[in-house]
Amino acid sequence: MIKFLCFFALIFLLISCYSPNRNCQQFKTGTFEFESYLNGELVKTTFVRNDSIEIDYFKSKADTSSIRWINNCEYILTNLNPKNMAEEKPLHMKILTTEENTYTFEYSVVGEDKKQKGTVKKIE
User: Quick one: how far is CA 33 from the chain centroid?
Assistant: First the structure.
């Protein structure tokens, strides 16, 4: 029984020490692609981000948002030219993990609990 408890404690310690890779600094600027399903169709958004502005290109239309960085891995995205009430609400973006040229993130409307996840690929 003691061996079992020691083994369980060791496994618990190893799992709790795991920390995902988050090299967010390399994803603060650049050109990125994001793919998602919209009404059953796979669509691609390309966006260019510098330290304070993000320009999204979706279906031949451009949209500009301001960026306010909270820390190296989190920022608030606010649409500068909203076309409706939904676009007026800022988004909280959080980079969860990073790899070579991709990162996984979660986002939500500021003040709301519902979060969604996605993966972005850096192309430049």
Answer: 12
- Residue 3 inside a domain? The answer is no
Number of folded domains that form the chain: 1
Q: Which pTM does this prediction carry?
A: 0.78
How many CA atoms within 13 Å lie on the side-chain side of 60? 0
Which residue from 114, 74, 113 is spatially nearest to 94, judged by alpha carbons? Answer: 74
Q: pLDDT tens digit string along 66-101?
A: 999 999 999 999 999 998 988 889 999 999 999 999
Q: Answer yes or no: is 112 within a domain.
A: yes
- Has residue 8 been placed in a domain? no
